[in-house]
Amino acid sequence: MATSNDIGVTDLLPRLKDQGYDAERVARRRAWIEEKTGVSLRNIGSVSFDTEELRGNIENPIGAAQVPMGVAGPILVHGRHASGMFYIPMATSEGALIRSYERGMVALTRAGGVQTAILADENQIVPTFFFPDVASAAAFSEWAPGQMAQIRAAAESTTRHGKLTDLKCYQVGRQVLVNFGYFTGDAQGMNMLVKATDAACQWIQNNYPIASYFVFSGMCSEKRPSGFLLTRGKGKRVTAGALLPHDVLKMYLHCTAEKLFQIWHSTVIGHLHANSIGYNAQYANGLTAIFIATGQDVANVVNASCGVTNFELQPEGLYVSLMLPALTVATIGGGTGLPTQREALSIMGCYGASKAKKFAEIVAAAVLGGEISMGAAITTGGFVSAHEHYGRNRPK
Amino acid sequence: MATSNDIGVTDLLPRLKDQGYDAERVARRRAWIEEKTGVSLRNIGSVSFDTEELRGNIENPIGAAQVPMGVAGPILVHGRHASGMFYIPMATSEGALIRSYERGMVALTRAGGVQTAILADENQIVPTFFFPDVASAAAFSEWAPGQMAQIRAAAESTTRHGKLTDLKCYQVGRQVLVNFGYFTGDAQGMNMLVKATDAACQWIQNNYPIASYFVFSGMCSEKRPSGFLLTRGKGKRVTAGALLPHDVLKMYLHCTAEKLFQIWHSTVIGHLHANSIGYNAQYANGLTAIFIATGQDVANVVNASCGVTNFELQPEGLYVSLMLPALTVATIGGGTGLPTQREALSIMGCYGASKAKKFAEIVAAAVLGGEISMGAAITTGGFVSAHEHYGRNRPK
Amino acid sequence: MATSNDIGVTDLLPRLKDQGYDAERVARRRAWIEEKTGVSLRNIGSVSFDTEELRGNIENPIGAAQVPMGVAGPILVHGRHASGMFYIPMATSEGALIRSYERGMVALTRAGGVQTAILADENQIVPTFFFPDVASAAAFSEWAPGQMAQIRAAAESTTRHGKLTDLKCYQVGRQVLVNFGYFTGDAQGMNMLVKATDAACQWIQNNYPIASYFVFSGMCSEKRPSGFLLTRGKGKRVTAGALLPHDVLKMYLHCTAEKLFQIWHSTVIGHLHANSIGYNAQYANGLTAIFIATGQDVANVVNASCGVTNFELQPEGLYVSLMLPALTVATIGGGTGLPTQREALSIMGCYGASKAKKFAEIVAAAVLGGEISMGAAITTGGFVSAHEHYGRNRPK
Amino acid sequence: MATSNDIGVTDLLPRLKDQGYDAERVARRRAWIEEKTGVSLRNIGSVSFDTEELRGNIENPIGAAQVPMGVAGPILVHGRHASGMFYIPMATSEGALIRSYERGMVALTRAGGVQTAILADENQIVPTFFFPDVASAAAFSEWAPGQMAQIRAAAESTTRHGKLTDLKCYQVGRQVLVNFGYFTGDAQGMNMLVKATDAACQWIQNNYPIASYFVFSGMCSEKRPSGFLLTRGKGKRVTAGALLPHDVLKMYLHCTAEKLFQIWHSTVIGHLHANSIGYNAQYANGLTAIFIATGQDVANVVNASCGVTNFELQPEGLYVSLMLPALTVATIGGGTGLPTQREALSIMGCYGASKAKKFAEIVAAAVLGGEISMGAAITTGGFVSAHEHYGRNRPK
After folding, report:
1. Residue C356 scores a pLDDT above 50
2. What is the spatial distance between Cα A216 and Cα A126, in angstroms, rounded to a whole number?
3. CB contact, 8 Å: A61 with chain D?
């Protein structure tokens, strides 16, 4: 087996001045990799903007991945924060994905549009405190909620936008997991939360002598799937729904309400049998494509795609809806300000401050389009033929 | 509320000749969006390659998202399919992510490298068959496994690469969910599977008169989190592990084995309390960044990030390992052949046929780097400072 | 197939005067079954008390099951509600179960006893309200919390003991699940809750014209396993813990702290792989035996056995603890007043009013005994031999 | 805090000759408890049979819990193993439970009876093996399946009834969980499995030098809720279903197919939101009452109540069904031979050898009765009134 001698100083990536974000140093790093591996990275190196803009979003930059971007829509949204007709930029390499979403969005729009509502807006972080025994942990569990004002002051001293909205203790043996809830405005907020919570924890440690802590307990379910996400949420909790009349179903989805309901019903059984979290047809497809296009933290798709889609038979057609309890989307910070990402957000009028709730409503409506389109494709056998038609890049 | 009159023919995206993949028509579509929304899409339009290459990966193309790409490494891998030192291309906009992974990879390499093993390689699809009652469904459940040879012939008649490896019936009342397992070679394989399974289902329908079916039951957990993924797997099931000696922990991760174990132990409690699927620190971060860089179906991160990380105290240090049961990665098909993605795969020597298992082992080793680095950052408080240092793009 | 003609009036169980709880009518019903089936029910008929006492606990009574009862202990408890040495009555037919629990309890007592704490005390019921669309459901979700005072008045008008402590809306599409939290005193409280909540729902329906509702949504997880139970709890949330010094481990459990920790660690991996809810060794064994002995609603074992056991290595030994978030136990109502059950509760000084929290703490401490004993038995191979020795009733 | 000095020899339960199962020694132990606690245990002491029969089922016996027993039915079953009309003994203290089940059973019988099928019959145990690193664990994972014949021989050398039916390796890092599947005949089989598997593990240890092991890994989900149970099963996997015509629904359940379907549909949403395992109305109620009455290991209710109930609208009425993947029931061994328990099994013709599959089918049909009755009670508001009427023992 290899030993630690195997790695030499020439194997380490070059450390460049000021971290090397200027064009010349990015090129030099790329050339180093090209030489090490014998691979030309011409396309990766084709960045259409000043590479200094990459600072804060990546380390050891060598360029950019170019992910195909298309648009789907229009989708008509009737929410409190989003209202009107929207086109949705989606970045993906999965053939037929945009066609699938587009078909669903057009059907929803033809049906009169999608109602949306933001039900909650709170991100979570759950540090954990350690005590010598159950009794002392219990004493802390009783003490902490009473210090909300001072804990809030400590937390909010580190941020202009974050607001501490809730604090709840979950004791397990001699460990106390303290669930901090925050309003994070238009940012995804995880970095803001960690910093604020660390300050709060230090205040606690200074005022409750025996506590040691870690700022993460794993309970927050950031980028992880869990039941906690459904009950407690993370970021925007949003719902969307629409009535699809029989004629719209027939004309735009080529199926009946009964058939579409049957696919929902039978796949719910499949989800239950698989012990899935929640129920959905293809949340991850739509969310991932929108997240990549708009500079979201794409790894958050794991939490964001926990939710529940519902189809209900009505005399007039099919009522379709979804609820996403953990839609961690942002319109400022993270990758939202990068050139292509900012442009994509701007297509929906969602770049910058005071836009995150609007964006969340649009995303929910768009994702609902994918739910009905996928269902329809399965019932009609169109799934196979659409992928034959649009997904031609299958292995040869 | 809006009515269906709201959507006019001028609201629909222009349908262009031959679907409009040539540069001129992509530009025309982009201009149409620019006009509709008043937004300049200059950067999205800056594609470094022939837009005809987008065909099969996207519809309604307007250009590409440029996602910052950097490299982390080196990571020394001792697997059956991957062996040697690798640099990992990662595309992300989350500041500090690459630094975090790089630190972990270097520590693993300094420790002598990561052992990896592919434990299984089978993708799943689960169509569902409908019967009038429990007795007739039970009769089918008994009949179907005996037809394996003919079902396989029907399925494999549609594909040169897919092999039907297993067939198992799960009856629920009068519905029978039939789990088809396939070997899909170096492709992610979902499209291949759907087509093959549809052919198999049609053979069944022709030979078992009363069956109707849907090709999806929801049980396959494609791009969804579920317990089924842990037991049954999806794509590559891979494990990776290494012993981190005390001196490596101290020098490269600035923490002790005991402290790193304590963070594992206490966050396992948090995961159990959250009713998470499996346990991990940040699988989704690493997987997403690699998936975007290399043209994987990024939505598969949802299933791929179900797994189990383990830290074990040893006299000589800390044994760290992970098991990913549903790592659906490909080196051919999908987005792997796109220009920047192909270059990224090539950096690891993983582009093309006979490379998927190698790639899976490298991914598992790289992701393990993120697990230890995250743990170390929490124990030392480095998490907050690293994000302060590298993630400067937080909202202003 | 059989038709509805198959069932005749002589097949229906005899309806007896005043529901037939007096000894003579219980005997007559029993004789009817004996005649129908040709089976002597002599032992089932041997009830040591007035059969009129069965009224309210069962219908169509024919006697009683005699479930073997033994005692385990003593267990020394240091809680706020329970303090001192207790003997635990357990009814079971699983050989070795009591010996296993006894061994653990004695070890905990030798170690100085078990600390316990009640962390919360709230039962849950979640009716669901239906609306025509997402917007009207969202309006209700905003309106309802503001009516807490009047909703509480309506709910509490039906009960002298139940107190409405919380009300939270979970909207999913056009359905709103309203989580009512109640303090139910010393009763398990489900019947009380249903009645109170039905009154509250009727008040809502009278004051919010368009709502229709069902009093159950399934979310409450009564007698069902779920992630919700961990976050939200049900009945008593209780924790218990103790430090087992090395000498106690050696003398009473015949194992080392390291070995016991290894079994915990390795079986946590097994639980994660199985996608279990929480982690435990054998909660269900102890809870079931105590629940049967003391007249609890035994089906509640399903929710009560969701929890988390933790073992932690310390220089001085092993810290062992558990947290049960959904321990729905009662000391009044249900089966607690039946003759043998009342006697069993009395053994622990837990029969009647103001005893439920004390009882919950004793149960948690006793169940912790089973966790350490099971772990020790596995590490020493004693599991097999103990069952050979005590469980002699295996099939011949 | 108390110290280990607190427990004296006079606090330990008296150890009596030959473990003290004869009537006189059971009485002496009971008297000891009575004296310690000042409580009369007259009813607990009223055992209608020779206390020597308790041997193998309990330790430290003091008598028996008398749990009220009634009968529900008849239920008409059309299975392969059970066929005909059955009366179901149920032991419970939950008022209205038997009335609820009886109503459902009669409705199913009026509808022409319930079809049932055993889909699988395999119990699971999953020992875990430890290796120094990932590579050596992987080598073992490849080696073990090839030794099936010899492993089977070792396992089956310890039992006349158990048959090793499957062996599958799940590697996680350097630990390998080996899933043994067994056919256990008419016994619940856990003790048989542990002994057989321990012998198999010893054979492995003798033939694969470096392996150490524990006979339990936690993955088997014995008496614990998990997703693994749905996919892999435990004991009998059984399904049951019936078509309820409109007139039966109206006459015996006082509701419509549409209303009953609505309650199913809306509570599925509640289950999904709670992150429940599977879906059911009240499995635990019926299973617990039957398990207590018939001497099953009642703690197995936790695994047995993981399953899926389905309601489907049909032109002719409502098709209702359930699937229980982990119904660990026995007709020999455990508590099945105790006097009242044997009588209860005999009522159904299910005592002794070759009866377990018959019993499993009857249980599934009976439990289905509870599913429809609960649903109907909620839709009609009868739930509240039934508990008012039958559950009169609520706290005063």
Report:
1. yes
2. 6
3. no
